[in-house]
């Protein structure tokens, strides 16, 4: 594994002009002047192990070749990566599926982070299998005999859920920190716009598995659904969420954070939502979390610019969100999920997206690279502190155009995945922003 790129990447990231000042999050204008490196969150993904097990080899054009998960993370490090990500659902043990989100895998990733000297960013997802903005199913703590469940989860009140979530947060924190891994941020939940831990509105059609209305908390929640909320006027939607859901949600997430901090007192907490291109929604959500007792140090978002046509440039709309988060709540922003296609997506689940180019960025490899470079260079001066390209290594037909690798096949070497130019875009965007970043430090 070549290391020249990693060496000069590290050197450049330590130049003050490319560092970000981490501001306080108490609503004051004060700057703590704690300087941290921009989070180039190029990381192995929930799909990496299944890709490796299929015999796929990853290459970057610099002579680096990866046939193991460890080697792939090293390849990412050669392009500036400075953290590892893992999603942890409430499964305790490996599931054997292609998308394992178990605590067991989380421990494996934590050990890898410790071995490579990288911080770990765990996402503590409060569902059994998977949940996102389209639906937030119930957690399942049946593999944690030390957690006492008085009744079925959907029959509990918020007050009864709180000690369980606190205990769960502490258990996960103990397991991860026991590996020696340094945790840079604890992300609680995945795209939690409309609920978490089963305390959520009804999912979109086709996402009803493991959902049960939280009637013991408020029957109004289970009578509302994701599609209806998305069709509401923005002010009406925010008002409904602020009245019926977000206050409960803030308490639940705060309980997980309290459990984590019982193990790691100075733990930095975060979460992320899907509607990063809607500034008014983003500010309303994070303000509600703060008022409800869940205080984050960084606001997380997802952004898939070609998922829809409104607004015309979702990248620029997200940059407005970043500015508004800093201006109104004094919170820095982290892009927890991002992908831009290198080609138009013709079919599969993402073929239903609008799949029109975002602003000036064409749907080709050059456009993919330019979009991420622009997002980085423009964002760092406005409060953006990091970007995670989502599933950069996933070359399955359903995601291949959104991946940072192109799949190639040969009779001699089988399937290989060759890095696209966008693998260097965050690094290059930081270099572009050097002068502006210094002036906004």
TrEMBL record:
One of its GO terms (biological process) is pectin catabolic process. It is an enzyme of class 3 (hydrolase). It catalyses: The enzyme specifically hydrolyzes (1->4)-beta-D-galactosidic linkages in type I arabinogalactans. Pfam families: Glyco_hydro_53. Residues 1-22 form the signal peptide. Its EC number is 3.2.1.89. Keywords: Glycosidase, Hydrolase, Signal. It comes from the Bacteria. GO terms for molecular function: arabinogalactan endo-1,4-beta-galactosidase activity; glucosidase activity. Belongs to the glycosyl hydrolase 53 family. This is Arabinogalactan endo-beta-1,4-galactanase. It comes from Cohnella herbarum. The lineage of its organism: Bacteria, Bacillati, Bacillota, Bacilli, Bacillales.
């Amino acid at each position: 594994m070549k290391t020249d790129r990693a060496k000069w990447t590290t050197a450049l990231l330590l130049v003050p002009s490319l560092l970000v000042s981490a501001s306080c999050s108490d609503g004051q204008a004060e700057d703590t002047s704690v300087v941290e490196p921009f989070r180039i969150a190029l990381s192995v993904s929930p799909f990496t192990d299944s890709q490796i097990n299929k015999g796929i080899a990853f290459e970057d054009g610099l002579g680096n070749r990866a046939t193991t998960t460890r080697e792939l993370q090293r390849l990412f490090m050669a392009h500036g990566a400075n953290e590892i990500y893992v999603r942890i659902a409430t499964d305790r043990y490996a599931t054997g599926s292609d998308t394992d989100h178990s605590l067991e895998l989380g421990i494996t990733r934590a050990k890898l982070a410790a071995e490579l000297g990288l911080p770990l960013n765990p996402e503590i997802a409060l569902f059994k299998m998977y949940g996102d903005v389209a639906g937030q199913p119930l957690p399942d703590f049946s593999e944690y005999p030390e957690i006492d469940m008085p009744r079925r989860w959907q029959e509990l009140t918020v007050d009864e859920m709180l000690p369980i979530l606190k205990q769960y947060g502490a258990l996960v924190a103990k397991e991860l920190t026991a590996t020696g891994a340094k945790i840079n941020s604890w992300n609680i939940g995945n795209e939690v716009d409309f609920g978490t831990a089963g305390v959520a509105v009804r999912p979109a059609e086709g996402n009803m598995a493991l959902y049960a209305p939280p009637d013991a908390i408020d029957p109004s929640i289970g009578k509302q659904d994701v599609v209806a909320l998305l069709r509401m006027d923005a002010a009406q939607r925010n008002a409904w969420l602020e009245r019926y859901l977000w206050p409960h949600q803030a308490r639940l997430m705060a309980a997980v954070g309290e459990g984590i901090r019982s193990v790691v007192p100075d733990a930095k907490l975060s979460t992320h939502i899907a509607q990063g291109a809607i500034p008014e929604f983003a500010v309303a959500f994070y303000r509600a979390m703060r008022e409800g007792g869940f205080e984050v140090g960084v606001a997380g978002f997802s952004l898939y610019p070609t998922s829809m046509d409104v607004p015309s440039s979702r990248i620029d709309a997200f940059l407005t969100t970043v500015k508004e988060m800093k201006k109104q709540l004094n919170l820095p922003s982290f892009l927890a999920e991002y992908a831009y296609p290198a080609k138009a997506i013709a079919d599969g689940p993402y073929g239903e997206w609008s799949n029109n180019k975002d602003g000036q960025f064409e749907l080709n490899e050059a456009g993919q690279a330019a979009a991420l470079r622009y997002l980085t260079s423009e964002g760092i001066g406005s409060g953006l502190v990091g970007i995670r390209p989502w599933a950069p290594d996933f070359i399955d037909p359903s995601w291949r155009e959104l991946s940072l690798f192109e799949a190639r096949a040969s009779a001699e070497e089988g399937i290989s995945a060759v890095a696209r130019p966008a693998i260097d875009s965050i690094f290059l965007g930081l270099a572009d922003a050097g002068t502006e970043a210094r002036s906004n430090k």
